[in-house]
Description:
Blueprint: E1 8-11, E2 17-24, E3 27-32, E4 39-42, E5 46-48, H1 51-66
Antiparallel strand pairs: 1-2, 1-5, 2-3, 3-4
Amino acid sequence: xxxxxxxxVVDVRTGKVWLVVxxxxxxxxxxxxxxxxxxVCAAGDVRAATAYERVSAATAYxxxxxxxxxx
Length: 71
């Protein structure tokens, strides 16, 4: 799967939505929606996120931020 930087993907093992911020060898560098630590994941372990999944992740982050749970 060829994935561009800036694409939202879902880790098929966890179901979590990530933002692609780069590549590293055969893996992808991923950052959680809303920021956080970058991690490397095999390109075969992700799929493109649907529009619903992108909006849901962004909404969850905005709600957590409004409650003071994240910076």
